[in-house]
Amino acid sequence: MSPIKVGLLGLGVVGGGTWKVLTRNAEEIARRAGRRIEVSAIAVRDVEKARKLVGDQAQVCRDGFEVVRRPDIDIVVEIIGGDTLARELVMEAIARGKHVVTANKALLAKHGNEIFAAAHQKGVMVAFEAAVAGGIPIIKAIREGLTANRIQWLAGIINGTTNFILSEMRARGLSFNEVLAEAQRLGYAEADPTFDIEGVDAAHKLTLLASLAFGVPVQFDKAHIEGISSLAREDIVHAERLGYRIKLLGFTRRRNDGIELRVHPTLVPAERLLANVEGAMNAVLVSGDMVGPTLYYGQGAGELPTASAVVADLVDVTRLQTADPEHRVPYLAFQPDALDDTPILPIEEVRSSYYLRMRVLDRPGVLADIARILADVGISIGSMIQEPHGETEADIIFLTHEAREGDIDSALQRIGALAFVHSDVTRLRMEHLI
Amino acid sequence: MSPIKVGLLGLGVVGGGTWKVLTRNAEEIARRAGRRIEVSAIAVRDVEKARKLVGDQAQVCRDGFEVVRRPDIDIVVEIIGGDTLARELVMEAIARGKHVVTANKALLAKHGNEIFAAAHQKGVMVAFEAAVAGGIPIIKAIREGLTANRIQWLAGIINGTTNFILSEMRARGLSFNEVLAEAQRLGYAEADPTFDIEGVDAAHKLTLLASLAFGVPVQFDKAHIEGISSLAREDIVHAERLGYRIKLLGFTRRRNDGIELRVHPTLVPAERLLANVEGAMNAVLVSGDMVGPTLYYGQGAGELPTASAVVADLVDVTRLQTADPEHRVPYLAFQPDALDDTPILPIEEVRSSYYLRMRVLDRPGVLADIARILADVGISIGSMIQEPHGETEADIIFLTHEAREGDIDSALQRIGALAFVHSDVTRLRMEHLI
Ligand SMILES: NC(=O)c1ccc[n+]([C@@H]2O[C@H](COP(=O)([O-])OP(=O)(O)OC[C@H]3O[C@@H](n4cnc5c(N)ncnc54)[C@H](OP(=O)(O)O)[C@@H]3O)[C@@H](O)[C@H]2O)c1
Ligand SMILES: NC(=O)c1ccc[n+]([C@@H]2O[C@H](COP(=O)([O-])OP(=O)(O)OC[C@H]3O[C@@H](n4cnc5c(N)ncnc54)[C@H](OP(=O)(O)O)[C@@H]3O)[C@@H](O)[C@H]2O)c1
């Protein structure tokens, strides 16, 4: 089947990321989507710069409308940003019957109702997973995963810049201005950080989430917005003494008489998962009346995580354009004819770190002998504790570095045979995750 | 549009929950799905018991095949469990061109390849969100949300019973057998808990997740499985001293030479989010090469959370049967003509708890005067700390119980006007979440 054709409006952070994801994972994506996804045209201001990334593999032009009007383009991806030109381009794409994918929360928070109405009438999709919480599939979760629920409330850390600043203020006892300057140096905050630090970006996203959760039109102008720029270091300290952390939350709740829609610094009990979302990470907690609370966590911005969401939307549209409805999503995520035969490894071939505990005779040389056996099969020890047990014995616990399970097996067999080892060796595996 | 018709095979924990969710949230579900979802027939062993729940609103019979063969039924929901009768019923439903929704991980982990092949040939959907991690939309996340990624590895707490037992063993220093007995009393563990505590249930689920993540056929027989029944209390203590918690993880990873697929008690660094998933909760951490790590958390079992996933699958199938593909999922989750006009509340009408900080003259009576003003507008104080500032002043911090923002405003105005209050009042909101 011929590739589906995509036009990119913008090739900046998100656009460049989208290009990279589509290129690097072309194979894997086609195995899932059932068809290749090909970028045929790109609009940017600086054509030379764009050429450096994409070479001759796509048309590169200065005029977004040229891309939107190409009859062979099936999907237009708007990643220019802003709400003037972007709006015109999106409306034109819809008018021409193109599906639209966008990461532009400002555009949708302000003009979503108009855009969705036009798209509905034309029978095209407007997908915007990348507009909220970057790579976390939170829009899909609410729109499709929690459809059985009356959603009661939703709370999100949906701006990475402010969460990074708050995390640093707390961890290092710095003031807002000190951390902001550093965040700008590190690229975590824009040169003009107003939209982030004043809560506007979070409010754009929250506005979309509230509509998805409660089934109301997009109403950004009704959101209450407070940022973190006037937050005092001492309030973070007091809050911590009282058992709370301060987070910039987007919070929306359905009550009988209306909907609360608000972004502001918020004290959250320190033991909650949301309170422990640190640095530039994002997380959204959604409470449904049937499912209870569910939480979604991941990177909320950046080149590749945001592009991950853009491309997921492209796959969604592609799947619908490609298969009959019943085959829209393959049972096991990959097309049935694209499953592969990578073997499942036997347990001896698994690699892991290990926790090993054994009881031994407490006498010089014992530890050396055991360590020697481990070293013989190439297992290195990360840490060790030894605890006396009664008068003559001791428990020894090793944490190893990563090793092959089969090597652990043979070492443990030799260790178990030593006369001064008085117990079976307890072996547990250890994973450091992220 | 006429309702879509569903047949339930089983009306136990999950079946009863499905009935309740469809009944209680019928309105909300139709607003999202674009059509009512109606249970027309139910098969159970004990017809009388079933009648008590459903009355005359659906046919109730003893023979599952009778339900599967009813020509007017569009979707068959298999929630009987087991892999003999359930398999026959599912295959018969597929042969008759019905879409299938199931919560049965044992069935799919063993016979998934056969079932999916038959369904593909017949052009019917087989949806199984409820089979893994209950109400958490983890299958949708992997199958549709992370399609841009080569998934690298995945780690999950996907059995609530064992996570509850491990949490209690650690928190209360009890042995496995002590906690198991209690879990059985509380209904967190079955009378025969073998499948849970020996890791078999987690391995069924992990098998499905690995196929979704890596695009390989379902291969339950290759999974390495160790449970928690022989885990010693002292290893939990040693692990904690070393900075780790022990969790029963399902872990699967793609390497160049093959796939690791294993369920076993695992040491996880104590500061990781997964290490802090307590009690019967579930969580799955998925690492994609583009998006990085993402985490999904919620209730992994139980009547309503599991039914939430069953009904989400029903909505998915319904949406595809109802709309043209472009309108499959409404832009804002609810059908455009089903949006409603619930107002967004002005900030004065919002209810929250508050953190209030002010600098005051340090003299008797000051606290009483401020507390009086708060009490006058009905605001009660949860806790208070006072800190001397220099010789003559003090900082007072109040945490209030929930109050109306407008009442806080008027109290703060009066407090701000007091001569002995020397600063603006800093006001932050506080949410306890879950
Ligand atoms: N960055 C993130 O992490 C992130 C995350 C989520 C959502 N988003 C959203 O994604 C969108 C794009 O953000 P970004 O960070 O990728 O922005 P960016 O790096 O500034 O890129 C913007 C791109 O649009 C092009 N462009 C600007 N004006 C144009 C015009 N008049 N005609 C043609 N091309 C034009 C630019 O071309 P030149 O390169 O030639 O200047 C550039 O390629 C925004 O809506 C943003 O809110 C971003
Ligand atoms: N419980 C959970 O939290 C949970 C979570 C995720 C997935 N699941 C899965 O969901 C499935 C159902 O679990 P469950 O907990 O709901 O089981 P359950 O409470 O034991 O219910 C089983 C139902 O099937 C009916 N049934 C059994 N044999 C039958 C037969 N031969 N003909 C007709 N009906 C028959 C039973 O009828 P009677 O009522 O008349 O006996 C009962 O209504 C299982 O595959 C399980 O693994 C369960």
Automatic annotation (TrEMBL), chains A, B:
Residues where NADPH binds:
105
Q: In which pathway does it act?
A: Amino-acid biosynthesis; L-methionine biosynthesis via de novo pathway; L-homoserine from L-aspartate: step 3/3; Amino-acid biosynthesis; L-threonine biosynthesis; L-threonine from L-aspartate: step 3/5
Q: Which GO terms describe its biological process?
A: methionine biosynthetic process; threonine biosynthetic process
Give the protein's cofactors. a metal cation
Q: Where is the active site?
A: 205 (proton donor)
Tell me the enzyme class: oxidoreductase
Q: Which PANTHER family match?
A: HOMOSERINE DEHYDROGENASE (PTHR43331)
Q: Which residues form the ACT domain?
A: 355-430
Q: Where does L-homoserine bind?
A: 190
Positions annotated to bind NADP(+)? 9-16
Q: Which family does it belong to?
A: Belongs to the homoserine dehydrogenase family.
On the tree of life, the source organism's domain of life is Bacteria
The UniProt record lists the keyword Metal-binding: yes
- The molecule here is called Homoserine dehydrogenase
Question: A GO molecular-function term, please?
Answer: metal ion binding
What are the entry keywords?
Answer: Amino-acid biosynthesis, Metal-binding, Methionine biosynthesis, NAD, NADP, Oxidoreductase, Threonine biosynthesis
**InterPro entries assigned to the protein according to its UniProt record, in alphabetical order:** ACT-like_dom_sf (IPR045865), ACT_dom (IPR002912), Asp/hSer_DH_NAD-bd (IPR005106), HDH (IPR016204), HDH_cat (IPR001342), HDH_CS (IPR019811), NAD(P)-bd_dom_sf (IPR036291)
Known EC number(s)?
1.1.1.3
